[in-house]
Structures are given as structure tokens and as C-alpha cells.
Input
Amino acid sequence: MANGTGLLRTIPNQITVARLASVPLLMFLILWDSQVGRILGIILFFLAAVSDAVDGYVARSLKQTSTFGKLADPIADKLLVSGALIALVQLGELTAAPVMVIVAREFLVTGLRIFAISEGQVISASVLGKLKTVSHIALILAILVGRSFPVVPGWSIAQSVLLGLALFLSVASGVEYFVRCRKLFT
Output
């Protein structure tokens, strides 16, 4: 099943498609003005975020990597984070400018990775890229939890620090990917 055959017959690809399909539901739950919706949104976002690590682990351990997975997995991750961030902008929890920086980086790096695949190269995730992903997940979860539950004093300061960290890691890892791949452009 490696190299693109049996696209949705593999567990990793099914997990990726489920993550893709969860994005509209996640946005609905975040935007739904009810405590139940907010709690379900937290749970769904957490499960979808964890599924990113799970599908990669399963793909490698069962030797079920595929071209579809290499393309769809990063897109699913970007849509998950972007969908959650856009919903939080609509709710007034975040402003558009930092979210646009994060989303722009996601699309630029995804485009770079797709371009690299078309050139026969795979750009693996860097440590900085993985830290960036963790910072995005932590930021979104912190905001979702803060909207749903009474939190400790200073919670908004923690959210601001997480936003700053997410922005820094977005820009730094984006620059790192383009520097690592500069030979693709020569």
C-alpha cells in the first residue's frame, strides 16, 4: 500500500481524511454559543490535533506511507489550525493580523512542500516546525479552555505569551524551511 496505492484503505489516510472532515464541525462547535458546543469543540480540536501524530506514527510503523498522505496530511493540519483560528477571530478572541501571519506561513510552507514533492524531494518536518505546531495547538486550546471554564488569574497573559510564541515560531520555522530549500529555486 505504499507509494499512493489504496488511498483510503490505509489507516493513516483514513485518519487524515477524518481530520479534514472534522474542520467544519470544529468551526461550528467553536462558534456555537453554548457551553456544550465549547466543550465539544475543545474535545474535537484536541482529538484532531492528536490524530496528526497518530497517523504519522501508524504510517511509519505499518509502512503505509503514501503520496496522498504526504500531500493531504499537512493540508489537513493547516486547515484544522486555520479553521480554529479564523473562528476565534470571528468571536473576537484574536485579532486578524497575527492570525494572517500564521495562516500565510502555513500556506507558504505547504506550497513549498508541494513544490518540492513535484521536484521529487520530500521536505521533512523540522524540530522548529514541530515546535511551531505545538505552539499553535497550545494557543488554540488555551483560548478554548479560557472561554469555557473559569481559569486562574493571569490566564489572558498566558494566552498573550502563547500568541507571541506561536507568531515567533511561525515566522522562524517558515524562514528555516525556505533557507533549507533554497536549492529548489536555483
